[in-house]
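During the no-cost extension, the postdoctoral fellow (Dr. R.K.) reprocessed legacy sequence entries with the updated structure-token encoder. One reprocessed record is reproduced below for audit purposes.
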Amino acid sequence: MTEPSGLGRTVLLCGFITVFVSGCVERRLIVNTAPQGATVILNDEEIGTSPVTVSFNWYGDYKVRVIKPGFEILNTHRKLKAPLHDTAPFDFFYGVLWPGQIIDEYEWTFRLTPYQSPDRQELIDTARQMKGRAAQDFKTPLPEQTK
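Re-encoded structure tokens follow.
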């Protein structure tokens, strides 16, 4: 077997550097709640108890659900927008060729509302209103309710 020429060694060295010493982008999301200690669910996957840090691979719209006993369940969504270094064609340069490491860190904080029991009469009134709307939407008469 012949030994690589000067150019061949340079190509091998560049290949080694590109594969083993190239930079990378680390993406982290920190989710806080006030008060802390709530269960956090992102896109139907439980990620832990707040405050919680999770790695992520993609940017976009995230469905968020936060649950803590004694507080209203929070259902919402948040968007993570990709920074310039994580959009084409820059992502190749920063993800493969950039010699250092880039850390993208985002932090979301959600304020929880204490749970309040609904008023009984208010629930009954709301149910009657919904029943009336359903009857109008379907245009079918509902049997009269006996009292």
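Strands lie at 24-34, 39-42, 45-49, 52-55, 60-67, 74-80, 101-111. The CA atoms of residues 122 and 128 lie 10 Å apart. The remaining legacy entries will be reprocessed before the final report is submitted.
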